[in-house]
Design a protein that fits this description.
Bound molecules: 2-acetamido-2-deoxy-beta-D-glucopyranose
Helix content: 25-40%
Number of strands: 21
Radius of gyration: 25 Å
Structural class: alpha+beta
Shape: globular
Strand content: 15-25%
Distance between the termini: 45 Å
GO molecular function, one term: carbohydrate binding
Subcellular location: Golgi apparatus membrane; Golgi apparatus, Golgi stack membrane; Secreted
Pathway: Protein modification; protein glycosylation
Main location: Golgi
Pfam families: Glycos_transf_2, Ricin_B_lectin
Length: 520
């Protein structure tokens, strides 16, 4: 039963993991066949009958006879391009907001925003559906412009045809080109620097904004130093069905510094007195979609330009906002849909792993103080990565007098997977102040007397996950069973077990803090 529940947890976490990784990777939709003369994604349907394919956010079903062609086209962008091309660029979407959001009133002196969208080899239909949804569902008085930053796409229709198309739209749309492939971070910085609105709203290139998405974001930006994200709804990569995201999850991260969604904790529900239409304070942002005041973006140091391509930049800006006196929120009355992909055809010289390791090391070194060791412990090899020069980022932290990472864990993210207080952090596990033996979100658990121990999802209810360390006898006693953690295990199994305490050397454990070499 318990194993079954555990499997479900593991399954659910890995699903979320895959979704998120795809979300972060989505930017790198690389065209496999860019010189294929039959380039896909050329102008789709401009508008159509209200009962047309995909209207109301409904799924598109491809008839059997076209399935082969559909599969071929799928490879181009790693989503169902055939379905996307059938859907009107200005299709209707359901109003997925909470009832309490629908008649909220906002001040009429809201700041105006520029919308910055970076794309690389994006399909025509998804890119333009993003643009149309922004224009159709935003009050034009609040829209300064849309800036499309082309990160060196290789498709002809994204050159002059795109420029000609956007010229006739009711809102100024600028197309800016990167001279060479630069990655999300640098392309966004370029777009931001060329935009003029008081607020900068970053979107990905395959989004759809729903009714009322913009006003609640801008209303929160009027609060000093507040950075806001919408709820990210899911647009199916298979059918382009529109599915509402939850207002009950917020952003966190694990020991590997992977962004993850977690349930909004009770304390955050209590702070809002149970009103789910009020913005949620979130420890981190997913990264793709957010709005920020232009001056504040400058003041807190935009992005770390020493980071390559993408990865880690969302946690970096999240830590920076909180530690340096700002607030990061998910505005639950704002919904923007996003195509989540299952795979990316993109490859990068040296491998994406190296880039993410480098970026993550920069963020760990600059922002996480001694807690960076939790990341280093669980990511062997990461300490060998050259992370470049971080002097200017450390100087920024100094200049802004940002608070320590322990403050962030204490005040912003107490439910973090990283224990705020711990007795030891060793090569394998940490022994926390709550007396758990733990690695990431897994805790050492006992389900059978005299039997092997195992790692299960931490429940923080003590119970079978409570261990008492005796620093003199060096024993780890499983309190519930009064048995000792024992290195001897069943034949040919490497797993330690619990046994009656004998105080032999098989039951002695030396808990200490690892010392990581100073210079890597
Ligand atoms: C979509 O665009 C078409 C053609 O431009 C127009 O006729 C139609 O009314 C639009 N639909 C909506 C819902 O705005
Ligand atoms: C390990 O480090 C933590 C955090 O700095 C500290 O509280 C703890 O006392 C240390 N433990 C040992 C055994 O030195």
């Amino acid at each position: 039963m318990r194993r079954f529940a555990y499997c479900k947890v593991v399954l659910a976490t890995s699903l979320v993991w895959v979704m998120l990784d795809m979300f972060i990777l989505l930017y790198f939709s690389e065209c496999n066949k860019c010189d294929d003369k039959k380039e896909r994604g050329l102008p789709g349907r401009d508008g159509g009958p209200r009962d047309g394919p995909g209207e109301g956010g409904k799924p598109v079903v491809i008839p059997k006879e076209n399935q082969e062609k559909m599969k071929e086209m799928f490879k181009i962008n790693q989503f169902n391009l055939m379905a996307s091309e059938m859907i009107a660029l200005n299709r209707t979407l359901p109003d997925v907001r909470l009832e309490g959001c629908k008649n909220k009133l906002y001040p009429d002196n809201l700041p105006r925003t520029s919308v910055v969208i970076v794309f690389h080899n994006e399909a025509w239909s998804t890119l333009l559906r993003t643009v149309h949804s922004v224009i159709d569902r935003s009050p034009h008085t609040l829209l300064e412009e849309i800036v499309l930053v082309d990160d060196a796409s290789e498709r002809d229709f994204l050159k002059r045809p795109l420029e000609q198309y956007v010229r006739r739209l009711e809102i100024p749309v600028r197309v800016v080109r990167m001279e060479q492939r630069s990655g999300l971070i640098r392309a966004r910085l370029k777009g931001a620097s060329l935009s003029t609105g008081q607020v900068i709203t970053f979107l990905d290139a395959h989004c759809e904004c729903t009714i009322g998405w913009l006003e609640p974001l801008l209303a929160r930006i009027k609060q000093d130093k507040t950075v806001v994200c919408p709820i990210i709804d899911v647009i199916s990569d298979d059918t382009f069905e529109y599915m509402a995201g939850s207002d009950m999850t917020y952003g966190g991260f694990n020991w590997k510094l992977n962004f993850r969604w977690y349930p909004v904790p009770q304390r955050e529900m209590d702070r809002r007195k149970g009103d789910r239409t009020l913005p949620v304070r979130t420890p981190t942002m997913a990264g793709g979609l957010f709005s920020i005041d232009r001056d504040y973006f400058q003041e807190i140091g935009t992005y770390d330009a020493g980071m390559d391509i993408w990865g880690g930049e969302n946690l970096e800006i999240s830590f920076r906002i909180w530690q340096c006196g700002g607030t990061l929120e998910i505005v639950t009355c704002s919904h923007v849909g996003h195509v989540f992909r299952k795979a990316t055809p993109y490859t990068f010289p040296g491998g994406t792993g190296q880039i993410i390791n480098k970026n993550n090391r920069r963020l760990a070194e600059v922002w996480m103080d001694e807690f960076k060791n939790f990341f280093y412990i669980i990511s062997p090899g990461v300490t060998k990565v050259d992370y470049g020069d971080i002097t200017s980022r450390s100087a920024l932290r100094q200049k802004l007098q940002c608070k320590p990472f322990s403050w962030y864990l204490e005040n912003v993210y107490p439910d973090s997977q990283i224990p705020r207080h711990y007795y030891s952090l060793g090569e394998v596990f940490s022994y926390t102040a709550n007396k758990e033996i733990r690695t990431d979100d897994l805790c050492l658990d006992v389900s059978k007397l005299n039997g092997p121990v195992m790692m299960l999802k931490c429940h923080h209810l003590k119970g079978n996950q409570l261990w008492e360390y005796d620093p003199v006898k060096l024993t780890l006693i499983h309190v519930n069973s009064n048995q000792c953690l024992d290195k001897a295990s069943e034949e040919d199994s490497q797993v330690p077990s619990v046994r009656d305490c004998t105080h032999t050397r098989f039951q002695q454990w030396l808990l200490r803090n690892v010392t990581l070499p100073e210079v890597f």
